[in-house]
Design goal:
Blueprint lengths: L14 E2 L1 H7 L6 E6 L2 E5 L2 H15 L1 H8 L5 E3 L4 E3 L1 H10 L5 E5 L9
Parallel strand pairs: 4-6
Antiparallel strand pairs: 1-6, 2-3, 4-5
Helix pairs in contact: 1-4, 2-4, 3-4
């Protein structure tokens, strides 16, 4: 669900599907990943970033918790990207991409930079 121009925060959804969140939001994170021969590099490639976040969520037990109980704490979104909750989004997407996830919307603090 893309946010339409002129939409007020009061009109934004309180729940979204992880597939919608991932399809309509940029991921501005970067992660270190192994490129082979013991070398690593920093990347912002979305597939690599989301995969690293899923691995981390599985290692911490968050992914299993979300698989059993769903996402309890809202994911924070701005108009353009996921501000907080990447691990929750990718875990929910991995196990149930069409199950509802609670979201809250905030203005992007970087939109009004001079």
């Amino acid at each position: 669900m893309a946010v339409q121009p002129g939409t007020q925060f009061e009109q934004l959804p309180m729940f979204m599907k992880p597939s919608e969140i991932m399809d309509t939001r940029d991921n501005w994170d970067e992660v270190e990943h192994e490129t082979g021969f013991g070398r690593t590099e920093i990347t912002s490639d979305p597939e690599v970033v989301w995969d690293k976040k899923l691995q981390s969520a599985k290692a911490s037990g968050l992914a299993d918790s979300i698989k059993k109980e769903g996402v309890k704490n809202p994911v924070t979104l701005s108009k353009d990207f996921v501000m907080n909750g990447h691990h929750r989004v990718i875990s929910a997407y991995h196990y149930a991409p069409d199950k509802w996830v609670p979201v809250r919307h905030m203005e992007n603090p970087y939109d009004n930079r001079d």
